[in-house]
Specification:
mainly alpha, Arc Repressor Mutant, subunit A, 2 domains, elongated
Length: 193
C-alpha cells in the first residue's frame, strides 16, 4: 500500500512539475504509477490532495536547505533577510512551489487543505513550521522584542512574502530589492538593538 502511495507521489511530482496541476489528469497519474484509477482514491481524495502533499514535501525540503544556510547567523535581521531571499528564489524556481504565485489556484488549494485538516492549521502555517525554531531561539536569547509573539512575526514575514506575489501590481523592476528592504524593516522593528 505504501509502495503505491510512493509511486503516486513520484509520478505526481514529475507530472505536476512539467504540466502543472490543472494540466494533469488523475488517469495520467494512475497510468504512470501502474494502477487503476479507482486505486488512486484509496490514497488521495483528489489530485489536489496529492498535489498538496507534494507541495508540502517540496516546501519542507526548501525550508530545510534555507534554514541550514542561515542557521549560523546570529543576527536575526541578517538571517531572516537572507532566509526570505533564498526562500522566494527557491519557490519561484521550483515549478511545484511556484503555484504560490497563482493566487486563485493557491486559494483553492488552501481551502482544500483546510477542509481536510480542519481550520486549526492553515496551509500557510504548515509552510512556515520550520521557521518557528529559529524564532523561538532568538526570543529565548532576548534578540526579539517581548511584545512581538511568534504568530505575529510569522504573519509579518508572510505579508512580506505575499508582496512578492504582487510584483506586477507594485512594479517588477523593484524586485527583489523591495522584498529585501521590507524584510529588513520588519526585522529591525521587532529586534532589540
Amino acid at each position: 500500500m505504501e509502495e503505491i502511495r510512493q509511486r503516486l507521489l513520484t509520478v505526481g511530482r514529475e507530472l505536476f512539475a512539467t504540466r502543472g496541476l490543472t494540466g494533469t489528469a488523475v488517469a495520467e497519474l494512475t497510468r504512470g504509477a501502474g494502477i487503476a484509477v479507482g486505486s488512486f482514491y484509496r490514497h488521495f481524495s483528489s489530485k489536489e490532495h496529492l498535489f498538496i502533499e507534494i507541495f508540502l514535501e517540496e516546501n519542507g525540503e526548501l525550508k530545510r536547505r534555507v534554514m541550514a544556510e542561515v542557521a549560523e547567523k546570529s543576527d536575526p535581521v541578517v538571517a531572516v533577510t537572507e532566509l526570505v531571499r533564498l526562500n522566494l528564489e527557491g519557490m519561484s524556481s521550483n515549478p511545484i512551489l511556484a503555484v504560490w504565485y497563482d493566487k486563485d489556484l493557491f486559494a483553492r488549494l488552501e481551502k482544500d487543505f483546510g477542509e481536510r485538516h480542519g481550520m486549526q492549521r492553515t496551509l500557510a502555517e504548515a509552510l512556515n513550521a520550520d521557521t518557528h525554531s529559529a524564532l523561538e531561539r532568538w526570543k529565548a536569547e532576548g534578540k526579539l522584542r517581548d511584545d512581538v509573539d511568534e504568530s505575529f512575526l510569522v504573519a509579518l514575514l508572510t505579508a512580506v512574502a505575499v508582496v512578492d506575489m504582487h510584483k506586477s501590481d507594485v512594479g517588477v523592476e523593484h524586485f527583489p530589492r523591495l522584498t529585501a528592504f521590507l524584510t529588513e524593516a520588519v526585522m529591525t522593528a521587532v529586534t532589540r538593538r
